[in-house]
Design a protein that fits this description.
This protein has about 120 residues and is mainly beta. The chain has one helix and eight strands, in the order H-E-E-E-E-E-E-E-E. An eight-stranded antiparallel β-barrel has the order 1-2-3-4-5-6-7-8. A hairpin with a 2-residue loop joins strand 1 and strand 2. It starts with a helix and ends with a strand.
């Protein structure tokens, strides 16, 4: 029985249909300063428009492959915003994707889940 379980789980591969999430309307909830905050964004082609706490910001999107892309602010307001972010979709469901992200050139990665809203 143990051998059967090992064979079953070793063959399991999480769903990863990244094409479904290249374009669309999305929401993402995170914790900032012990508060849960939600941002929304629209991604279409090589453009992503973010809506967060009443502010709108635009970023250029460059896809590396079907599941990885680089996001760079179009009009950064400071040095921190000039840094590109590497995004990697790890798994997908029918309505969401789990991703990891980091500042390009840095090894510290964070994870999140984005939900498709359209």
């Amino acid at each position: 029985m143990l051998l059967l379980s090992l064979v079953f789980f070793s063959c399991y591969e999480p769903q990863r249909d990244c094409q479904t999430f290249k374009d669309g309307d999305f929401s993402f909830t995170s914790i900032i300063n012990d508060k849960e905050v939600t941002s929304t964004f629209i991604r279409k082609g090589d453009l992503e428009i973010d809506y967060f706490q009443g502010k709108v910001d635009s970023s250029a999107v460059r896809w590396i492959n079907d599941c990885e892309y680089i996001v760079k602010k179009i009009n950064p307001k400071n040095r921190a915003e000039e840094k590109s972010i590497h995004m990697k979709i790890l798994t997908t469901t029918d309505s969401s994707y789990t991703f990891e992200y980091n500042i390009v050139g840095q090894s510290n990665k964070s994870k999140g889940v984005a939900f498709k809203t359209n």
